[in-house]
Design goal:
The chain is an alpha/beta fold. The chain has one domain: Rossmann fold (3-Layer(aba) Sandwich). The protein is 36% helix and 25% strand. The protein is built from six helices and eight strands; from the N terminus they run βαβαβββαβαβαβα. It has helices at 9-12, 24-38, 91-97, 117-124, 134-144, 162-185, and strands spanning 2-6, 17-19, 42-51, 60-68, 87-88, 103-109, 129-131, 148-157. The protein has a five-stranded mixed barrel with strand order 3-7-6-4-8. Strand 6 (103-109), helix 4 (117-124) and strand 7 (129-131) form a beta-alpha-beta unit. Helix 2 packs parallel to helix 5. The two termini are 23 Å apart. The relative contact order is 0.25. Mean pLDDT is 92; it is low at 187-193.
């Protein structure tokens, strides 16, 4: 059985699954707990995300690979002794949802949303999309041997105006991501068409 998860309940709405928490630490713990109790055959993360410019707001993307941002190491203020590797999303899950999304993307998981133009530019070299939970959920799935994919509605451009743009576009982006997964896996979702 395929189950769904999201950072917060509003992103999940009526999809069968659970909210796992905001940010990489909470999402990893919440996902591990969910996987241990529910034991799904596959897990699909649904949510909103920011774009580094490749995919405009209103786009729905499926992640093909998720990465974890090295944060202070990127700025030359520290180093990561054993940097975590990028994680590939399950090819079968990507193929299932591909007809229902606008694009495929590499997704960078961050611990804090970037509003500094220099940091935004640096992060854009690694990925097209910024999201706070994807790598953590993917990692918990990899540890449990559960296939994973993320389907994200782009709500905002990453940068100084991101929060206001996210607030204005969040509900539409959430609904678009849910509609894509509902179409892919024929899950009835109220209010999505």
């Amino acid at each position: 059985m395929i189950r769904f998860c999201a950072a917060v309940p509003s992103e999940l709405a009526d999809l069968p699954g659970a909210s796992v928490g905001v940010g990489p630490v909470r999402a990893a713990a919440g996902t591990a707990r969910f996987l241990a109790t529910e034991r799904p055959n596959a897990l699909v993360l649904v949510g909103t995300a920011g774009t580094y410019g490749a995919h405009p707001p209103g786009t729905v993307v499926v992640a093909t690979e998720v990465l974890l941002d090295p944060d202070v190491a990127r700025l030359g203020l520290g180093y990561v002794p054993l940097p975590p590797a990028p994680l590939r999303c399950d090819a079968g899950l990507v193929a299932s949802v591909r007809p229902h999304v606008h694009a495929e993307a590499r997704v960078l998981t961050v611990s804090a949303i970037a509003n500094d133009p220099t940091l935004v530019t640096a992060r854009a070299h690694d990925a097209e999309i910024e999201h706070m939970e994807a790598w953590a959920v993917a990692w918990a799935c990899a540890e449990a041997g559960v296939p994973f994919v993320a389907v994200l509605g782009v709500s905002n451009a990453v940068g100084p105006g991101a929060h206001a743009q996210w607030r204005a576009n969040r509900e539409v982006a959430e609904a678009a991501a849910r509609a894509a997964v509902a179409a892919a896996w024929t899950t009835p979702v109220r209010g999505v068409g």
